[in-house]
Amino acid sequence: AARLSVGFFGLGRMGLPMAQRLAKKYPVSGWNRTAKDLPVEITRMQDFTAVSNVNVIFTCVSSSSVVRELLEQMWQHVRAGTIVVDCTSGDPDESVKLATKLRGIGADFLDAPISGGITGAEQGTLTTMVGGAASTLEAVRPLLETFSSNIVHVGEQVGSGHALKGVNNLMNVAHLMIAGEALVALAHRGVRPDVALAAINGASGRSLATTHRFPEHVLTRNFAHGFTVELMDKDAGIGAAVLRSHFPTATVLPAAARAFHDAGRAVGKHADYTEAVKYLEQVGGVVLREGPLETRTKD
Hints:
Helices cover about 45% and strands about 15% of the residues. It is an alpha/beta fold and about 300 residues long.
């Protein structure tokens, strides 16, 4: 088989450390929308003609519409047999359309969204949720293993990985909003947030929100997880669309998506997604921090 060579599109906070890990074992050419200095191990792609020199294309950008724009620009240079691996948290329906178009020129597509944050990308411990043919996954598995320690083949259907990632992130914001509402109510009942979490995190109500997001980012008031309201709201919206299509009578997750969307509008799209809790604090008249309670009586 031909030696794997990679073109990596989207060298942002996640993409750059992923590409650097790939470059330890494989030749990697990189492209980013905004000019930035690249580490020496990644060759800068001067233009899209360089796509004809690679047999695996990675995309790790903000949305499926950006993936589509990129592929349209590189279309005439993509060789038959090329595999496009989209690590964007994308739209499953858009991915099906892109895969169909790529098949028309003899290229393959996998949706392979990732979870695990910047630390996971740097350490090579990301979870990757792959939709598409098992044979295509096996062809690129060695590449994925450079940055992912948990590769889950979600299904043969393209878009299944993106559907799962959207629902996963919708669950994430649901847990955040649930914990926020719970702690606001308990504060008014005289229970300190840090005391409440000490119990909840050893009990059955715990979640990632209670074990990590609140202790590390809310109660400390640093709100610095590193993922914006805008991106999380986009992902939660994709998850909510999966529910609308496939379980339209569902109530809890759609309500969580709306609650996070409203909170996100209040705190601003560039805020850290954990700052959505500030909206609950404002409405509830509580500041959720370590130590003595800070509540105000609602007028």
